[in-house]
Amino acid sequence: MDTAAPLYDPSVAAIGLAGVSKTFRDGTRAVADLDLDIADGELLVVVGPSGCGKSTVLRIVAGLESPSEGEVTIGGRVVTDDSPGERDLAIVFQDYALYPHLSAYQNLAFALKSRRMGRKAIDERVREVAALLSIEPLLHRKPSALSGGERQRVAMGRAMVRRPSAFLMDEPLSNLDAKLRVQLRSEIRHLHRELGRTFLFVTHDQTEALTIGDRVAVLRRGRLQQLDNPQRLYDFPANIFVAGFIGTPPMNLLLATVEADGATRVARAGPWAVPVPAGVSSGKVIVGIRPEHLGVPRYVTGFGQAATAEVLVPEVETLGGLSLLHLMVDAEPISVRDDDGSDAPFAAGTSPATVLAAVDARAHILPGSALTIAVDSSRVRFFDPATGDALGLNADQSARPLA
What we know:
9 helices
């Protein structure tokens, strides 16, 4: 088989949601006025915390749920009222959903037999897909004799043999251990390139979202917070929620005061004075700093305009080549929240704040140390303390069109 060519014949399978909302009978609003366009052949990931509505979005696209408002299109055709069988989609669930009494071969062949395909055609299709997924030696085994990763490959194969126009994946890796998740993330990207089909992938794992998606849509309480490619999503979060949700460890968020410092204006975030870009007004502002943009001056390279200050390090976590420093600073921390029933996506805490810095482990920092920490001022982000929206350079960058 020529793996350089797409497995399926070309067809248009762009997916669109326009003004889609979903309110359940108990009054729960799972999705709110969602506009989302997935290009033909794109792998788009929908990510967010538990209960944000991401699985409901997938079920609406699949036809398993009907939207309360709005329209769903596939390939430009309105399918809002179509049944799941009329949409030419395949779904891969997190629990595999394999028939336990059938072998892997029989699980893959089941949908084709239902379509009354000939035995030879079924065998060719099953073995073609099995070769692509590297599960040929497993075809005679039943699900009980397969590992979690093997079951998930069979589940993906069962979806693939039908040759659908698009794939919907609902947290397919959540039941696997960490090592298998990493492996299957790579395999899903490979499959997407090989098949050339549209993929809608749903997950709560932001690392998974950033490593798999061509673009990533971040949801909070059924509302779209940001839709962008993974790198810009990480570098230029559109608001406080995205800044605090995306990244491991997450972005440090501090309440700061903007004031004049000679001929320039700076935001005083704890002990650091960080220059502010145009578009950031005087007064209060929220400053966002990624842990990797804090460092010990001797061991950092590539920092832009650096602000330095001496801080206390009460705790150190060693992570192989990196050390995660817990810095104690005199500032009000901003925490992202989504599970306390409040509509506000963030809240201010009380001083002092714990700031995380990811530094080169060669620095050999000991708990209880006091040392100079530099901030890469060019990578600091600013947010409106009233709305939580990005300000200045951050807002301009995140608004750039996709390449």
